[in-house]
Amino acid sequence: MKKLRLKRKQQQKPDVSSADTEKQPTIEAEATVDIKSKVSTAEWPQRKVTLAPDQPLLEVRSVERIFDVGSQKLHVLKGINMQVMQNQLVMLKGRSGSGKTTLLNMLGGLDLPTSGEIWFRGEQLSAWSDDKRTRARRDDVGFIFQAFALMPLLSAYENVELSLRMANIPRHLWKARAQHCLELVGLGKRMYHRPFEMSGGEQQRVAIAKAIAHKPLLLLADEPTAELDTQMVAQVMGVFQQIIRTENISICMTTHDPTIMEVADHVYEMVDGKFVS
Ligand SMILES: Nc1ncnc2c1ncn2[C@@H]1O[C@H](COP(=O)(O)OP(=O)(O)OP(=O)(O)O)[C@@H](O)[C@H]1O
Question: Is residue 22 part of a domain?
């Protein structure tokens, strides 16, 4: 059995005063981080989030997803109910093909349920127009999916800067924010290395820095620790704990790895399109 050097979480209270406000530390992480360069939050584009402390950031209500495959109907999600509270780490576990990625795509507004509702920051995301979902994805969601890999010819710094450019963050904020995010994931000294000059765990940490650079409310990660060795898995999970604390973010990730589940606030186990307790 693999042993991870992860510390258990202590009691956490949600903080909803503002998406950009620093919170009291409530969890321990062993990732080496050096948070020196902070971007002035006053300059950052303002977003309106009016959630009560006990209101979920994300809520899934009776969601079903049926795909048409040729003349057949493939019933992949069969009545999913779940919540991600503010500043929580939630994991989805389940066998290959159980429906985790299908659900994660919906949580990020990349796909829509056949029936049921998805609520995000107090509004029904599943009823939004394509444009509104695209804007919410750009502004409030960060993705770590295989399909959103790093640009191989760009340095770690340039990769993170690119995501700030794509999120329409004002140019004068890029440098400090990109440096801050790379320091946050413990790569302050590797900023100018390109992906092929880095280990798998380092590349995954660049992907995290890139996904959180625009200060999303929600980070969605599909198997972010797959392909990593035990030590790198611990580093990545440490970074996740750290960014929940310092970036006021919630994380929902899929995993097959039972050794990391103890650091989650909640684990949903999916079997054949349904959650089992
Ligand atoms: N766009 C689609 N059209 C048809 N079938 C799909 C589509 N997307 C997913 N499926 C099917 O839905 C089922 C669940 O797939 P999904 O990728 O959600 O599983 P998963 O739990 O994430 O698996 P893994 O752990 O291997 O990534 C699979 O049988 C898959 O073939």
Answer: no
In percent, the amount of the chain with pLDDT more than 70 equals: 83
- Lowest pLDDT segment from 20-34, 53-67, 71-85, 156-170: 20-34
What's the CA gap between 148 and 189, in Å, rounded?
24
| Residues facing 82 on adjacent strands | 60
- The CATH number that applies at residue 61 is 3.40.50.300
Asked if residue 144 is part of any domain, the answer here is yes
CA of 240 to the centre of ligand 1 (A): 26
Q: Give me the residues paired with residue 64 across strands.
A: 78, 115
Q: How many domains does the chain have?
A: 1
Gap from CA of 101 to ligand 1 centroid (Å): 7
3-state SS assignment for residue 275: strand
**Domain encompassing residue 84:** 54-276
- C-alpha to C-alpha distance for 134 and 132, rounded to whole angstroms: 5
102 Cβ inside 6 Å of ligand 1: yes
End-to-end CA distance of the chain: 23
DSSP state of 276: E
Cα-to-centroid distance, 100 and ligand 1 (Å):
8
pTM of the predicted model as reported, rounded to 2 decimal places = 0.84
Residue whose CA lies nearest to ligand 1 atom number 3: 67
**Interstrand relation of 218-222 and 141-144 (parallel, antiparallel or unpaired):** parallel
Q: Indicate whether 148 pLDDT > 80.
A: no
Ligand 1 atom, smallest distance to 111 CA: 1
Indicate whether residue 225 lines ligand 1 (CB < 6 A): no
Domain contains 48? no
Distance from the alpha carbon of residue 103 to the mean position of ligand 1, in angstroms: 9
Q: Which of 264, 157, 155 is nearest to 209 (CA)?
A: 157
Is 163 within the bounds of a domain? yes
27 band by pLDDT with thresholds 50, 70 and 90: very low
